[in-house]
Design goal:
With 201 residues, the protein is mostly helical. The longest helix has 29 residues, at 10-38. Helix 2 packs parallel to helix 4 (111-124), helix 4 (111-124) crosses helix 5 (128-138) and helix 7 crosses helix 8. The protein has helices at residues 10-38, 80-91, 95-104, 111-124, 128-138, 153-165, 170-187, 191-199. The chain is built from eight helices and no strands. Mean pLDDT is 82; it is low at 41-52. The protein is elongated. The chain has a domain at 80-199: Serine Threonine Protein Phosphatase 5, Tetratricopeptide repeat, CATH 1.25.40. The protein starts with 9 loop residues before the first helix and ends with a helix. Helix content is 58%, strand content 0%.
């Protein structure tokens, strides 16, 4: 039996037109998308535009880096003086012996870091002379060699307080000097310095 369009009712014809229209629209949109994509080839040397950085929130203070990072080590990890110190710590020495050894280390590129290992060990075990010396390593106002130890005023403050409690009167001078530095940094906008001042006792 042959297909005769006149056999369809008018309502059925309208549905056929609507379905055909939707299919045709879908084909046109798909073809348009493929053609558009084909012309979006990145040109040689063209870099995608970087997303611009959003401005900082108005109620936040600008970040201020007042302490430069420590220099990278200029010696190998198995440098002789470091190895000597590690061996002594492994074998076991008293805090007093560690302080004495730190003072007697020969001059070398790794001397400051090797001495720090000994002094930190002694300070952790209650030696107040070592606590004062460790504070100086972290103190940004100290100009003595501090190896690869990053300056940190809050940590310096903590060690100075321990040293002062243990009878190291020199720590008073170090604390006063550090306090002046922290005040200056706070006045220049350092959030960390202001926090340290708020907690200063």
């Amino acid at each position: 039996m042959e297909f005769n369009p006149s056999n369809f009712k008018s309502g059925q014809r309208w549905w056929l037109f609507i379905i055909a229209g939707i299919l045709g629209l879908a084909i046109i949109v798909g073809a348009g998308y493929l053609i558009w994509n084909a012309f979006q080839v990145e040109k040689p040397g063209h870099q995608a535009a970087k997303t611009p950085e959003l401005p900082r929130m108005a109620n936040l203070p600008p970040r201020k880096t007042s302490i430069p990072p420590p220099p990278p080590p200029s010696y190998s990890p198995d440098a002789p003086v470091l190895e000597k110190v590690r061996k002594a710590l492994r074998e076991g020495i008293t805090p007093e012996e560690a302080v004495a050894m730190a003072k007697s280390l020969p001059e070398s590129p790794e001397r400051a870091d090797a001495a720090f290992l000994l002094l930190e060990y002694a300070a952790d075990n209650g030696n107040t002379e070592a606590a004062l010396a460790v504070g100086q390593y972290y103190d940004p106002t100290e100009t003595a060699p501090s190896g690869t130890i990053r300056k940190n005023p809050e940590t310096a403050y903590g060690w100075y307080r321990d040293a002062l409690k243990g009878g190291q009167e020199t720590a008073k001078t170090s604390l006063a000097q550090l306090h002046s530095w922290v005040e200056k940094q706070a006045s220049e906008g350092s959030y960390e310095a202001r926090e340290l001042l708020n907690n200063w006792r």
